[in-house]
Amino acid sequence: MRLSKIAPSILSADYANFESELKTIEASGAEYVHIDIMDGHFVPNISFGAGVVGAMRPHSKLVFDCHLMVSNPEQHIEEFARAGADIISIHVEATPHIHGALQKIRQAGVKPCVVLNPGTPIAAIEHVLHLVDQVLVMTVNPGFGGQAFLSETMVKIRQLVTLREEKGLDFDIEVDGGIDNHTITAAKEAGANVFVAGSYVFKGDVAQQVVTLREALHD
Ligand code: DX5
Ligand code: ZN
Asked: Most CB within 10 Å of its CB: which of 28, 102, 162, 201?
């Protein structure tokens, strides 16, 4: 069985105190920190860039899971690799060059992840699955924290599990959006093993919220 990993999203953290927020996440026992990069073009908001990722890097040993919600992500891979990203996730909808862009992430020494919006079918990534270490199935439309989990996306996770088995591939399946102590169970039952949670983790005591997510996984 694949190990479950919890990835608190700093989109819901205190932007003036990333250093202490990272320490809090690390102390909670979460494996990853999920860093949402938004460009005001692929999604309406602007969040933070590679400079912020680079500034955070010396303060944490957590896996930096960088989710690029940006148009033409292939133009930004080197800067996020240099900044210290461990995983770079790019949207299949954001570039006509998804195959080359995923190769570029690997060449930069970073783990590649391909992302699907709720309306995008698995068929859109079938021919690049051999290039990735992780597939992110969005469980909300990207751009905002605090949205409701879309349960209709679970069918795509099941399809991915089947494809992974048929093709003998090895990648994690991540979910992002609307994850709480109920929806995490549904996502795990469908076959996901990496769980991003923003508003749920930061609405209370971070360590306690991570414990409730972990308990709901019944690992
Ligand atoms: C949404 C982002 C998410 C966001 C999730 O576009 O990709 O990572 O932080 O927030 P919650 O967990 O509040 O839905
Ligand atoms: Zn995200």
From this structure: 201
